[in-house]
Amino acid sequence: MQIEAVSTRPFEGQRPGTSGLRKKVKVFQQAHYLENFVQSVFDSIGDFAGQTLVVGGDGRYYNREAIQTILKMAAANGFSKVLVGQGGILSTPAASCVIRKYNAYGGLILSASHNPAGPDDDFGIKYNIANGGPAPEAVTEAIYARTQNISYYDIIECPDVDLDHTGSFELVGMQVEVIDAVADYAELMQSLFDFNAIRDLLAGDFSRVFDAMHAVTGPYAKVILEDMLGAADGTVINGEPKEDFGGGHPDPNLTYAHELVDILYGEDAPDFGAASDGDGDRNMILGNHFFVTPSDSLAVMAANAQLVPGYASGISGVARSMPTSAAADRVAESLGLDCYETPTGWKFFGNLMDAGRVTLCGEESFGTGSDHVREKDGLWAVLFWLNILAVRKESVKSILTDHWKKFGRNYYSRHDYEGVDSAAATQVLQNVRDQFTSLPGTRMAGRRVASCDDFAYTDPVDGSISENQGVRILFEDGSRIIFRLSGTGTSGATIRVYLESYEPDSSRHGLDAQDALADMIEAAGEVSQLQKLTGRDKPTVIT
Ligand code: VG1
Ligand code: CO
């Protein structure tokens, strides 16, 4: 049946360039709101008659209701089959894996990633294409355009379906298959990593803890780490997914994953700790009293990839998002590999992976992954690290110390100012832009400014251009100060300030990053007038 879609006008759909539609649950609960978006997606993705759609989410509040709606709309719109994770669960990387494995036309993933969940918090939905990756900008732009003039949607009338048991049944001419949410993903992990070596490591005196933060990775980590790899019960903490993520903020960083940080920095700290975010695509890696920056994590993976069976025959290249430190560039150079610098957001890696130009990709925001799927992948990164540790039999800290000795250390930090006034945030970036012509040649933070720009990217595969991807101050010694506005927050604006400085001298590798970057941090404040404009004297989150 067709239903008029006008009751939530003006319909505020997904803005182009953002990773999915993220709004408060209350917004999604308005009559026809979710339906408008889903129909806009179906109207914008081409001819899927007779094709398969994958559906699943991170288990947050409203996940189940949304899936019921999507199933009824998929049937009315002509999909022949929907694969849905049991209980409505699929982590983002598992959804990517399932889309690829079963040659689906695409997938709808219900998640607002790390944003808090619950009736008064956030919900989200994103569309992934047939390669398993986030829809590219041309597709999100088409979806957005459609949200602006959609007038009806198609949906069948039928009772809700049972999502809790695996099995297959028909829904008005469309087949619905409820699949084990973990099995396909676990099998893929087993094909990439040396499970025997990791099992031996975990059976020894190597102590470890994985914090699922009451979000989607709990069931995945329990099956893979505890059941398949034999890690003692209790290795996975906060492993029960909850609709409100236990009231927490499943963002795996030093601020929001404080329970894990306290364990790794406490007495009798274990050898290894890791956490993942709400939808399972990001990761934080910790050693005993030691934090691995995501930028360094990517570099260490690239330098040690030959130790991991799935990558033993070599990697084709490396890509990192622009704000991510250049640590991986140095590894790529020493291995004679290409290293690509893309805008923030995983969708920019898809073309490079599809074209076989890169194998490993990473972002400073705790996202790492490879061409095994087309999303960043939290548990994959944890297994990659465990595989390296199993082979090298050294501590996390000694692996990093050794890495810095060989390649130099890229001191790096990101300062986030969350929930600031949007106009003030825009002005902070504009203040820097206004000095683009006067800054080059001057000295800041004891270094000479080489150039300033708004980062723009031309996709080397399809030639598409993405502009205004971050305001950069680039120094002659390779140091950088970058300002960006977040595209994932749902209240006010978030300013991210990224700071990087390269230190070749190994006698200076043991500093605290905030100390090593102190003069850069001060210069960033001065040049942008950030503190004055936002009324904030310190960041919300320091990574
Ligand atoms: C943030 C990160 C970015 C990441 C994005 C989606 O975006 O900075 O690197 O790709 O989240 O991650 P922004 O625009 O807020 O800086 V997730 O875990 O939400 O898929
Ligand atoms: Co995420």
Characterization of the model:
The chain has 18 helices and 27 strands. With 543 residues, it is α/β, with parallel strands linked by helices. The chain has three domains: 2-180, Alpha-D-Glucose-1,6-Bisphosphate, subunit A, domain 3 (Alpha-D-Glucose-1,6-Bisphosphate, Chain A, domain 3); 185-407, Alpha-D-Glucose-1,6-Bisphosphate, Chain A, domain 3; 409-542, 2-Layer Sandwich (TATA-Binding Protein). A seven-stranded mixed β-sheet has the order 2-6-5-3-4-9-8, sandwiched between helices. The chain starts with a strand and ends with a strand. The relative contact order is 0.11. Residues 6-10 have low confidence and may be disordered. The chain binds alpha-D-glucose-1-phosphate-6-vanadate and cobalt (II) ion. Cobalt (II) ion is lined by residues 92, 113-114, 277-279, 281-282.
- The CATH topology assignment of the largest domain is Alpha-D-Glucose-1,6-Bisphosphate, Chain A, domain 3
CATH superfamily of the largest domain: Alpha-D-Glucose-1,6-Bisphosphate, subunit A, domain 3
Strand content: 15-25%
CATH architecture descriptor name of the largest domain: 3-Layer(aba) Sandwich
Largest sheet: 7 strands, mixed
Counting DSSP H or I runs of 4 or more residues, the number of helices is: 18
CATH class value of the largest domain:
Alpha Beta
Report the end-to-end length measured between terminal Cα atoms: 50 Å
Task: State the shape.
Answer: globular
Which small-molecule ligands are present, each listed once?
alpha-D-glucose-1-phosphate-6-vanadate, cobalt (II) ion
Strand order in the largest sheet: 2-6-5-3-4-9-8
Helix/sheet category: alpha/beta
SS elements, strand count = 27
Oligomeric state of the chains?
single chain
Taking all Cα atoms into account, the compactness measure Rg is 23 Å
